[in-house]
Amino acid sequence: MTEEAPDPELHFGNLIGAYTDAIRVSDFKANLTVLFVAIMMGPVVASRDKFPAFLSLPLILAPFIIVFICLLVCVYPRYPRRETRNFLVVPNPKKSDFVFSDKETDLDQLKLRCVILSGILFRKTLFLQISFLICLVSIAFTFVMLVYSLV
Amino acid sequence: MSKDVASYYRNQIAAYTDAIRISDFKANVAIIYGAFTIGPVMGFSNKFPPFLPLPAVLLPFVVVFFCLLICLYPRYPKEGRTTFIIKPNARPEEFHSPLNPEATIEQQQTLCVILCHILYWKTVCLRISFAIYILGTLLAAGMLIYFWA
């Protein structure tokens, strides 16, 4: 049984992989949720004459609009400036922009990438959770209304 | 021996992550399927038999959508946040590498517990949704046969 400490570069490499994976999954969920909400909007608007009087059309559309905004903010592409040295996103890159530099240790760069990805995942999760909560509350409200109309 | 233990947990984590990803994919496809089918169902609402009002037809869809959204709801439990930090303004000093192999194994065990719990709830919600879809489809098929015969 070895007593060596685990390789930090491997640990942070794995962590970056986990963050990237979680971000990708969040993006996929957001993309499909925006599609789901867009498809659902048609039948909901089409059956507006069957809604009770207190539910006006703008009131029905408000949750859709909020969810759309949150999901679009979630999928909005971001490349923070802190990482411009390692991952350039510029209109006219030059060969000289991509030069290997050993000034900073790899570990510092890996930690910086973890920080950036953590921030991105936090915002994506926040907006995705807001969207899902609005959808869940709207669905629960629809369920209550449907049961009420049946009894 | 330590490497064997580490690779065992790594494989377990990979298996859980894979199963969770597949569950998410199924839930995403199922929710889009439901959204596509609800339109034609509502379009034919005037052709339903009198004992089947529109709200009764829409109720299963609503339950399925609720279950699938619960299944897809993003979760990062607090127990796992010591290594997998999710903060808007995290600092590089907050990210530590494990000091010894025992700490790594403990982290991997914690991750297994978290992933197992997530997978359980995803599977429960997915099973409820699929059972409702299957029953609804069978009911629709039965009614179509009955009214055509």
Condensed summary:
Chain A has helices at residues 8-46, 57-75, 106-150.
Q: Notable features of this structure?
A:
heterodimer, A: 151 residues, mainly alpha, 3 helices, 0% strand, elongated, B: 149 residues, 73% helix
Task: Write structural notes for this entry.
The complex is a heterodimer of chains A (151) and B (149). Chain A has 151 residues and is mostly helical. In chain A, 68% of the residues lie in helices and 0% in strands. Chain B has one domain (2-148). Helix content of chain B is 73%, strand content 0%. In chain B, 21% of the residues are buried. The mean pLDDT of chain B is 88. Classes of the chains: A mainly alpha (151), B mainly alpha (149). At the A-B interface, helix 1 and helix 3 of A face helix 1 and helix 2 of B.
Summing up helix and strand content along with how strands pair, one would put the structural category of chain B as: mainly alpha
Which residue ranges of chain B are poorly predicted, with pLDDT under 50 across at least 5 consecutive positions? none
* Major sheet characteristics of chain A: none
Count of discrete domains of chain A: 1
Helix content of chain A: 55-70%
What's the overall geometry of chain B? elongated
Question: What is the share of helical residues of chain B?
Answer: over 70%
Strand content of chain A: under 5%
Ends apart, CA distance between termini of chain B: 69 Å
| Mean pLDDT reading of chain A | 85
* Proportion of residues in extended strands of chain B: under 5%
Which SSEs are present, and which pair or pack?
The complex is a heterodimer of chains A (151) and B (149).
Chain A: H1 8-46, H2 57-75, H3 106-150
Helix pairs in contact in A: 1-2, 1-3, 2-3
Chain B: H1 2-43, H2 54-72, H3 101-148
